[in-house]
């Protein structure tokens, strides 16, 4: 079964637009869980333009599903993980002012740094996932770093999906099998939506988790949060597409 982790960064973006506490992040996260989210994802960035470090501290004791914290592992981020101890930490190589995540780790170049960081994070009792492009040469080094899982960066898949869905998914299927052979758990995320999700899941049935924020929150404007979360859950439960 593939778990749906709802990324609530966009809720924080909306809240921050007026400086108050509307919408209330904590309430939205609890409602998302009640509506069927199987995890909550946040990606605090150094400028705290959406989720703030304090939000992360406030969320942890309230949540009853898996908490996934994504981010670049600078000292402040590592100390946050040490304090909060989420179920999963996803390491993302974003520089400070990037608009949004746009690539995975070069696990060859950053092998020794990642190995040290994964070991430190394991000492805090968190599962560690590494955000990664669908390129086979990065997978054995990711395993050698000690990662429990990898999260496939699905931005390029989403971009190509409408032109040629088979070509778009092919590299992901290949590395999905490679991850399985290396005993690396498999997550996926970035720009997944109601159009491209079921196809990805059908081609990579052993996906353990997808984290979805931007499109899901946009859809919730039209369908409501409860309906939307249920719609995404159903995409993950459809029979395989021929
Ligand atoms: C790693 C990843 O793909 C997500 O965390 C995504 O980047 C969301 O971050 P933003 O909400 O800042 O765009
Ligand atoms: N890890 C991906 C994530 O949390 C959400 O990405 P997006 O759906 O906001 O593009």
Automatic annotation (TrEMBL):
Its main location: cytoplasm. The record marks 151 as: Transition state stabilizer. It catalyses: 3-amino-2-oxopropyl phosphate + 1-deoxy-D-xylulose 5-phosphate = pyridoxine 5'-phosphate + phosphate + 2 H2O + H(+). GO terms for biological process: pyridoxine biosynthetic process. It is found in: Cytoplasm. One of its GO terms (cellular component) is cytosol. Keywords: Cytoplasm, Pyridoxine biosynthesis, Transferase. 3-amino-2-oxopropyl phosphate binds at residues 7, 18, 191, 213-214. Pathway: Cofactor biosynthesis; pyridoxine 5'-phosphate biosynthesis; pyridoxine 5'-phosphate from D-erythrose 4-phosphate: step 5/5. 1-deoxy-D-xylulose 5-phosphate binds at residues 45, 50, 100. The keyword NAD does not apply. GO terms for molecular function: pyridoxine 5'-phosphate synthase activity. The active site is at residues 43, 70, 190. It is an enzyme of class 2 (transferase). InterPro entries: Aldolase_TIM, PyrdxlP_synth_PdxJ, Pyridoxine-5'_phos_synth. It comes from the Bacteria. Its EC number is 2.6.99.2. Belongs to the PNP synthase family. Homooctamer; tetramer of dimers. Catalyzes the complicated ring closure reaction between the two acyclic compounds 1-deoxy-D-xylulose-5-phosphate (DXP) and 3-amino-2-oxopropyl phosphate (1-amino-acetone-3-phosphate or AAP) to form pyridoxine 5'-phosphate (PNP) and inorganic phosphate. HAMAP family: PdxJ. This is Pyridoxine 5'-phosphate synthase. The gene is pdxJ.
């Amino acid at each position: 079964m593939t778990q749906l982790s709802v990324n609530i960064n966009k809720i924080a973006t909306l809240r921050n637009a007026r400086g108050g506490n509307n919408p209330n992040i904590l309430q939205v996260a609890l409602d998302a869980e009640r509506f069927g989210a199987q995890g909550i994802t946040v990606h605090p960035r150094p400028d705290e333009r959406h989720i703030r470090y304090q939000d992360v501290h406030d969320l942890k004791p309230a949540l009853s599903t898996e908490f996934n914290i994504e981010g670049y592992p600078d000292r402040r981020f590592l100390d946050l993980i040490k304090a909060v101890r989420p179920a999963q930490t996803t390491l993302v190589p974003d520089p400070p002012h990037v608009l949004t995540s746009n690539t995975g780790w070069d696990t060859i170049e950053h092998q020794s740094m990642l190995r040290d960081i994964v070991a430190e994070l394991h000492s805090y009792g968190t599962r560690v996932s590494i955000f990664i492009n669908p390129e086979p040469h990065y997978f054995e080094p990711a395993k050698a770093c000690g990662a429990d899982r990898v999260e496939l960066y699905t931005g390029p898949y989403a971009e190509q999906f409408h032109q040629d869905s088979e070509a778009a998914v092919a590299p992901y299927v290949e590395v999905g099998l490679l991850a399985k052979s290396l005993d690396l758990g498999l997550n996926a995320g970035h720009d997944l939506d109601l159009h491209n999700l079921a196809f990805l899941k059908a081609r990579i049935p052993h996906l353990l988790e997808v984290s979805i924020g931007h499109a899901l929150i946009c859809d919730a404007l039209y369908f409501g949060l409860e309906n939307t979360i249920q719609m995404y859950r159903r995409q993950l439960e459809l029979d395989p597409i021929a």
